[in-house]
Amino acid sequence: MREKRQTGVGPSPRLMAGLVLLALFMVSINLRPAITTIAGVMSQLPGLFGLDPALLPLLGTLPVLAFGLSGPIGPWLARRLGTGRAVAAALLVLAAALIVRATVPALLLPGTFLAGMAIMTASVLVPQIVKANRGTGWWTGLCTMGFGLGAALGAGLVQPLAAAFGGNLQSALAVWAVPALLGAFLIHRSKGSAQGGVPQAQTGDAPSSAVVRKPAPLRKQRTAWAVTAFFGLQAMLYFAITSWLAVYLVSRGLEPADAAALLAWFSLAGLPASLLAPVLASRPAILRIMAPGLGLSVAAALLGVLMAPVESQVFMVGILGVVQSAGFGLAMALVVIRSDGPESAGRLSAMSQGFGFALASLGPLGAGMLHAMTGGWELTFWVLAAEAVVLAGAGFLAIRGPLVSVGAAGQTVQTEQITAHEPRATFVP
């Protein structure tokens, strides 16, 4: 009787799941302001930090390049510290990088690169924690919405914060270390994320009727490469847009503050889409249309921003924000949906985000170079639209084929375990 009473004293599983979800949401909010705060004030940086204007394309590329190079760090750190502690450590490094790059002008570029590494380390572990806690599409949706909310807050508040600090832009950039520290505290205290939640089934737990076979290496699984291509292409588009949209709008005659506000609107308009896209993706009939359809929608929206008059940019930038954010939400959802368990989700997340962001690093750099070569924006937007069409093809392939599996247990065993909780998560057209 005493043991029963003691067992009932602890928090309920529903409360623990809620705390994990809150921590993940706070973590997600911190994984974009380091980029969008810089993008929102890009034109002011040369005078403020003594930066050569020719290095601005490199500054926009550095965080994404760091993403591509640091993909394996997250899973490696999680195996040694546990996923919750690994994410907390990454956010502490992020907070330090934000302070250093804002207060030491010579460290603007190295600090931005370090911030990108910290962001990537935390980012690749989010799908693993979602999968381990049997999170539904709403979990993934809330996390992707957190990414969009953080991006919007970073772009939209950097100028008002600078004004609040008496015109001190460095303080407005460094203050984002505070929410990073809060996120580190919450995820560290979240028990459901300490070791990644519910572990994957092991070979010894498999029923005797299940088929047990060793899966092919991740690099030989075509579904893994299709998901990686989708993630990388949508990320390339996102970072090209966030790095240069404000500069493009200024070239159209808008004031820098208005251009920064529209960059924030780009992220804000996409928040509902980033929440709903993973939820809708769990429905097979919708996923068949959504995966390729989003790429075509992004292409149309990019050309709309290029051709629309200045007076219509609020509307067109909003549409671009909706379809681009939905693409990111779907990319994160595919990592969860197209993997057979927590370990597979973590490995697929590292692969798709590592290789994907390495590809995405070409976005800001390529867009800036095309603009510099032509002196205008027409060719840049047409090339980005063509890339969005390729994104549609990657989406078509990502939802076909077997689930990604990296464990020793057979695919049948893992699928049965997960589908007991997520009946739609193993859809194969």
Description of the structure:
GO terms for molecular function: transmembrane transporter activity. It holds the Pfam family MFS_1. The protein is mainly α and 429 residues long. It has a single domain (18-199, 214-419), classed as Growth Hormone, Chain: A (Up-down Bundle). It has 21 helices and no strands. The protein has helices at residues 2-9, 13-29, 33-40, 45-49, 56-69, 73-81, 83-103, 108-123, 126-132, 137-164, 169-174, 177-189, 222-251, 256-269, 271-281, 284-307, 313-337, 342-360, 362-374, 378-398, 411-419. Helix 5 (56-69) runs antiparallel to helix 18 and helix 6 packs across helix 7 (83-103). It starts with a helix and ends in a 10-residue tail after the last helix. Residues 1-7, 196-212 and 408-429 have low confidence and may be disordered.
Key descriptive features of the protein:
mainly alpha; 74% helix; globular; disordered N terminus; disordered C terminus
In short:
InterPro entries: MFS, MFS_Cyanate_Porter, MFS_trans_sf. This protein is mainly α and 429 residues long.
